[in-house]
Each structure stands twice: as structure tokens, then as C-alpha cells.
Known about the structure:
Layout: H1 2-32, E1 35-41, H2 45-61, E2 65-71, H3 76-85, E3 92-95, H4 97-105, H5 118-124, H6 129-134, E4 136-137, E5 140-141, E6 144-148, E7 152-156, H7 157-163, H8 171-185, E8 188-190, H9 208-212, H10 234-248, E9 267-272, H11 276-283, E10 291-294, E11 307-308, E12 312-316, H12 323-333, H13 336-346, E13 349-350, H14 359-367, H15 372-377, E14 381-382, H16 390-405, H17 411-426
Parallel strand pairs: 1-2, 1-3, 8-9, 11-14
Antiparallel strand pairs: 3-12, 4-5, 6-12, 6-13, 7-9, 7-10
Helix pairs in contact: 2-13, 7-8, 8-10, 16-17
Amino acid sequence: MKRRLRSILILSxxxxxxxxxxxxxxxxxxAQAKTKITYWVINNDPDEQLxxxxxxxxxxxxxxxxxxxxxxxxVSEETIAISVAGGTAPDVCQMGPSLSVxxxxxxxxxxxxxxSDFQAAVAEASKPADxxxxxxxxxxxxxxxxRGSPILLFYNKTMLDKAGVKPPKSWEDxxxxxxxxxxxxxxxxxxxxxxxxxxxxxxxxxxxxxLYDNTATKGHFLSDDGKRAIFAGPAxxxxxxxxxxxxxAGAAPTSPVTEDLFSNGKAAMTFAxxxxxxxxxxxxxxxxxxxxxxxxxxxxxxxxxxTYGDPRDLAIFQQxxxxxxxxxxxxxxxxxxxxxxxxxxxxxxxxxxDLATNPTFATYLEEHPELKPFAEAIAYTLSMDLSEHIWExxxxxxxxxxxxxxxxxxxxxxxxxxxSEVNKMLK
Length: 427
């Protein structure tokens, strides 16, 4: 009898071990069967923190998909280029519109409008229609608009009060305010981001482009087909004259400056995004309630004010082995709660047409009223030309901008010569 009981006990243990092993192997197989995607973020702590939160929240709702978050190198453009060339591109990647052009044309990116629910996804995420139209490359959209920071006009309330002027609404106001501040206070009327009058092309994204966005060109330097420079037309010349007038009047520095003039209380106005606030606080010269923000002046001071949105968006690479999972993750990132997380963690604003009116964001914006002007402006942001030559174009244009502001050439001649040079390059 004892032998029989012992045999039954041994048999039971064997069966139990078999069950445990079976379920253990089944669990391992299920784990191994998980769909994996990688998400690359730019090289800073807030973006990595946000990316990891996105991944954790997404995986909680989609346990069959594993998301690995990785931080790109100091120069994200180089990191992406090396990965594409080496066949190690991520599934989903943060990317600016200008950088996307070459990869789209080379077939390295998946056209997002090829997903059957693309239109439904952008509608649900309240993506501005005008912006999406501007994102088309050869008839397709390769980026999901994600976040940005509209560039608006910051002004020092105390300086404007001392000069007896109000925040500008028109281009004429803008020039007059800059001149009056310089004449009556001795401070610079305008101190642009990056420090003084410098020739590098990216500087023009934070001064000239803002006014130029409010012309019939909507900020484009090239024709629709990208084969001809258009910045030497009447709109471009009139825009340049504004900055020439300010610089020639001595209301803005005509040489490079190594400090943040506005944050240090040495300039009355500057063009910047919401990321300007931490710099102002760090400088400790002004309190935030001494700083005002208004929309970019329009030519007449009337109508909607457009601006550059300094965007960073989301792309999916053709090398992705799991594009459907990658697309699910992209759609998740642009949903309302994740958009709120973006504001809270990075201080950047999600690109949504309903940002200023959606109840999801209302409480946070009430607690941070300094962000309200930017939330209202996000629906009026524009992208630059989606051309693989845009950086060379900006560089050539910027040299002409500098020459005109220094009085070495008149605006029309400077832009005409620059356009001629760009047209030769585009042939």
C-alpha cells in the first residue's frame, strides 16, 4: 500500500512539474513572441523622460508590443544618417520637417497616409489642415505633426512704458517701437535669438521668417516645385526693409553678441518660443510678470498672425520590421493625455488645433497662463519649405540679409543677387 502511495505521489510530482514546465515554456514563448519597436528621442533629459512614460503607458494598454526608448547622439541628424546607412534605423523617430525631405525622397520613410486610418487619426488628434498640406512631399505625408513652440514676440513691459509705446501690431509699429526704445532708454529695441546680426542660416528662422510668414508667400523661400527662389519678390523685399530700418537706426546690434540681450534686460523685444521663460528666470533680471508676449505683427496690424512653429514630429522608417505596431504607437503619442504629458514634462506644446479650447488642457493652461498665447498660436504655425536644399538656401539668403542690414547693399539688390545664386544651385 505504501509503495502504491509513493508511486502516486511521485507520479503527481512529475505531472505537476510537467505542468509548471509547460506553462513556463509557454510564458517564455509568449514573451519571445512580443512585437518589438524602437523609439528614438533627441538628446536631452526631458525628452527621454517623456519617451519612457509614453512607452510605459503604451505597453500597459498594448502588452503584446514592447517599446524600447533610446536617446540619439548630440547631433541627431548624424545619428539618423548613420543608422539609415547601416540598416539599423529605428521604427519611430523624432524628426524635423526639413530633415525628413531627403529621407522621404530616398524612400527611407513610410508615407503615413498609406495607413488606412491616417485621416481618422489626424482628425482625432486635431491636426491643423493647413499644416498638413504644407507637409506633403511628392503628394504624400511622411510625418505626424507632434509638438512645437510657436515663435511669438516677447517684450519688456518696463522698457516700452519708459519709451511711451505699446506692443506692436503692425510692421510699422514694430519699427517705431524699436527706434523709440533705443532713442528714449538707450537699450536695444530688438535683440534677436542667437546673439546679434549673424550670417548663419538658422538665425533667420528666429527673426526674418516670423514676419515673412505673414506675407502672401506664407514664409516660403522657394516656388511650389522647389526649383526657383521666390524670396526676392515684393514680399521678401518689404520684409527685409523692416530689419534694415531697425539695424540702420542703431536699434539692434549689427555685430555678433555673446549674451542673451533680452533675458539680461538689455533689449526690449525678441522673437522666441515658450522655451524662453526658463532663460529669463535663470538670468534673474526680470520677473515673469514684467514680460509680455504678443502675436507676430502683421503688415497692417490686422488679420490672423502666422508664425514658425519650430516643429519636431514623428516618422516611421521603411526599415521597420513592425510598421503596424509603430503606427499604433505614433497614434497613441498624439492622443490627448499624451499631449498633456508633453506640455508638463518638456514645456513644449503639442501641435493641435484645439489646444486653446480643449478641456483636457484647460486646467494646466489656467495654472500656467504664460503658455496661453502659445496655445492659441499653435494652430497658426507654418513649416518652412520642404526642400532638400533649404539649408543651403537659408545660408545664401542670410548672407544677403546681413549685407542689407549693414548697409552694404540695398534690400532689393541683395535679395536679387542671392536668388540668382540659389537658382544656379537648384539647376
